[in-house]
Amino acid sequence: MRDQVLLTKIVIENKAGFWAEPENPEFFAEKIIWLLFHPEEARAMGRRGKERVYTFFSASRMAKEMVCVYEATLGLCGNFSPSR
Q: Rounded mean pLDDT of the chain?
């Protein structure tokens, strides 16, 4: 389930990829066949998907988001004092 949540941030159906249910190999096969018969659209989807990955999952963005997590955590612990 966690992987599905991550993929929904990358895949925009019919724009930056397809979503195929892992339990439905026939549907998955249909999508692969469609890509084979539509190479220009497949390349465009690949480019858009790659752009989304670079935009939302670049090392610099992930580092900034991790810093935000740490800062939020420290903010929650702002009343903590080791001398108590």
A: 77
